[in-house]
Design a protein that fits this description.
alpha+beta, BirA Bifunctional Protein, domain 2, eight-stranded mixed β-sheet, 17 strands, 21% strand, 2 domains
């Protein structure tokens, strides 16, 4: 949630910045709701004060064994008015909260302006694609079975078997070990979250259609960012522990609403996929430096797997809802003859912290932390990249040397 003080101080600036994100901020709607809130809050507080004064007066009379029907009637009238006014205030506050929860984070000053992914900027690249064009992972191996998964659950799932299943497990273990080397504490987490957790990190209410809802207030998590960040919800943290660096491997679940017809075959876009997530919680003055570090930590995995990749800075119009600044890591996929996103590393500044009320104290003042997150990496897409970039176009997939101790084999015959 953005700072409402920014809206009050300079609504035109907020509107301009949000326009760069392709978001139409309705200043008039906000000002109307805020004016109604102030009006009914003042009326509610005035009625509460009157009720308290009269109730105290009536209480003193009762102690003296006296009664004043007219005073009692006046108290009841005020109570009725107060109930109505309080109800109206609650409705307005709910409308205002709903309005504010729909607003994305403001882009950082350094973010390039642009309306879509076509305006993103390549920052750097690493490695040269060895296979400029090649077979797709489903053509290379039958150990990725989408037909069996379709029988079990439906489309956009996969069954991995044999050495390919072991390769994915090796990738995940390798990623977790790399995270530990960079100072991240590993966590094992619930893969179910409540609506408050999802609201805190920005998935709700904006992206409810992209979530798998279970019963009542339970949802399958779309990313480990949700539980990792919410572990500190409603807490005041010790500044001496900053930066907090957290990692976790989880399954992630997304309905992929609105993506019908895109990447429907294979592992690129699944309803269920594996991911190792990195989260940092830090001092506001350190968050952009932390973003550079977190991005380099994710890059380490690609470098050691010897996979060609590029780093792209997202423009304002392509930023995720909660992000103020994002770098995408894109890995080379030979069968598609292009680079595809395998990680997004984002600084959410105080956007999530304001929703989740994650704070620290400095010089006696309570302040909001900054939160960051990034994948290191999406295991399914890493699996695709390893298979396709290391396939000899005959019958062998070479295993990157960094994984040999994890797989206990150096190649896969297909």
């Amino acid at each position: 949630m953005i700072d409402t003080n920014l809206i009050k101080d300079d609504p035109q600036m907020v509107a301009k910045n949000l326009q760069s994100r392709n978001y139409d901020f309705n200043i008039e709607s906000y000002e109307r709701l805020e004016a109604q809130r102030k009006k009914h809050q003042t009326e509610t507080e005035d009625l509460q004060a009157k009720r308290n004064i009269l109730s105290k007066e009536y209480g003193l009379l009762k102690k003296e064994g006296k009664d004043d029907p007219a005073l009692n009637s006046k108290i009841e009238t005020i109570k009725t008015e107060l109930d109505k006014c309080s109800s109206k205030l609650n409705d307005i506050q709910s409308s205002l909260k709903e309005f504010l929860l729909d607003i994305p984070n403001l882009p950082a000053d350094s973010v390039p302006n642009g309306s879509s992914e076509e305006n993103n900027i390549k920052i750097r690249d690493h490695g040269e694609p060895r296979n400029l064009k090649g077979k797709g992972h489903l053509e290379i191996t039958t150990m990725i079975d989408t037909e069996a998964a379709n029988l079990l659950a439906g489309s956009r799932f996969a069954v991995l078997s044999g050495d390919i299943a072991k390769l994915q497990r090796a990738l995940i273990a390798f990623m977790l070990d790399k995270a530990e080397e960079h100072g991240y504490t590993e966590h094992y987490l619930p893969m179910v979250a409540n609506s408050k957790s999802l609201t805190s990190t920005g998935q709700l209410p904006k992206f409810s259609e992209d979530l798998f809802q279970l019963t009542d207030d339970y949802y399958l998590i779309p990313t480990a960012e949700v539980p990792l960040t919410n572990m500190y919800r409603d807490q005041i943290l010790d500044i001496s522990t900053f930066p907090l660096k957290l990692s976790a491997h989880t399954s992630c679940f997304r309905s992929e609403a609105g993506s019908y017809g895109r990447d429907t075959k294979g592992l690129i876009r699944q309803h269920q996929f594996e991911k190792v997530e990195l989260v940092q919680i830090c001092h506001p003055e350190k968050s952009f430096e932390a973003l550079e570090n977190l991005t380099s930590h994710a890059e380490t995995v690609l470098k050691e797997l010897n996979l060609p990749y590029q780093v792209v800075e997202l423009c304002s119009g392509d930023l995720g809802f909660s992000a103020a600044k994002t770098y995408d890591l894109e890995v080379w996929i030979p069968s598609q003859e292009t680079f595809r996103e395998i990680s997004s590393c984002s600084n959410c500044t105080d956007f999530q912290a304001r929703r989740a009320r994650i704070r620290f104290k400095e010089e006696g003042t309570s302040k909001l932390v900054h939160t960051l997150n990034g994948s290191a990496l999406a295991a399914g897409r890493a699996l695709i990249a390893v298979i396709e970039n290391n396939f000899d176009q005959n019958n062998t997939i070479a295993i990157p040397e960094a994984l040999h101790d994890y797989t206990k084999f150096t190649s896969i015959k297909v």
